[in-house]
Amino acid sequence: KRQSLRDQMPPGVRIGSAVDGRSLSLDPAYRDLLGSEFNAITAENAMKWRSLEPVPGVYAWTGADQLVEFAERHGQAVYGHTLVWHSDVPKWVSPDWPAERVRAVLQEHVTAVVSRYRGRVWAWDVVNEVLDEDGSLRDTVWLRKLGPGYIADAFRWAHAADPGARLFINEYGIEGRTRKADALVKLVRELRRAGVPVDGVGFQSHLRWDQQPRDLLGNLRRFADLGLSVAVTELDVRIALPATPQKLERQAAVYRQVLQACLAVPACVSFTVWGFTDARSWIPGYHRGYGAACLFDTSPAPKPAHAALLDEL
Ligand code: XIL
């Protein structure tokens, strides 16, 4: 039997993957790998609002329930993703409603979802992608209707619904020393000063094979220095197709560097990939010309990146 990431991971740092709901219910080989390689799982889509509440007040819990049950059977932690996001808002939530109504449905949503999985989800992405590249708050229906206070409110609602869950703010494009990363440092510092229950920062880490983020380690540290946990929440390393042996080696080096950085920072509590097999990755559908972003190929057989992570452990 091959060594697994899960067996080699040091205690105190979780190794996770996003889970594709269809494969979870239909593909035994997928389930086997998911159970043996990872000790944490994130729903790739099943816990997003549009999936959970397609019709107002009518919840579709099945996919999310199945994921949580799978995790419990396999001794895995569940990382909840994601409560407040500008994308994946159900169509019935209207930007034309008065602010009070928008606020009420948002609060109801956060409360319903967190309460349902109270004690069974170890961490939640409470807000996702709230910043723009220039560091300002992203122009979303939440900001427009509710003002910047919606972020603090979301954390307070989530905390009230499950005081034991660790609450994260999740973002992309903050792996290196970017303007967005600088702005996020400021934002979380302010939130913490105001007593908002923010426990950690999630670094999505959708990276490319030919670019290492600038000073990832130093960047993780400055968030850790604020007293926060940090987590790699959605790592994948996309390759401009076709994938050649050389590109796969460079990809492996990027995966390795991210793990190294996480392991070097005691505040880094988990390392999660956004899907583990190239057969089920979101990349080809969203980044034209790119693919082969995961640790396993379409067989699924482990790629050089998988070996690099094992080697680092
Ligand atoms: C993506 C999923 O992987 C896709 O299947 C879905 O169609 C769109 O969302 N940042 C996030 C994730 O926080 O929720 C996104 O997931 C990828 C980018």
TrEMBL record:
<feature type="domain" description="GH10">
    <location>
        <begin position="1"/>
        <end position="312"/>
    </location>
</feature>
<keyword id="KW-0858">Xylan degradation</keyword>
<dbReference type="GO" id="GO:0031176">
    <property type="term" value="F:endo-1,4-beta-xylanase activity"/>
</dbReference>
<keyword id="KW-0732">Signal</keyword>
<keyword id="KW-0326">Glycosidase</keyword>
<keyword id="KW-0624">Polysaccharide degradation</keyword>
<keyword id="KW-0119">Carbohydrate metabolism</keyword>
<comment type="similarity">
    <text>Belongs to the glycosyl hydrolase 10 (cellulase F) family.</text>
</comment>
<keyword id="KW-0378">Hydrolase</keyword>
<dbReference type="GO" id="GO:0045493">
    <property type="term" value="P:xylan catabolic process"/>
</dbReference>
<protein>
    <recommendedName>
        <fullName>Beta-xylanase</fullName>
        <ecNumber>3.2.1.8</ecNumber>
    </recommendedName>
</protein>
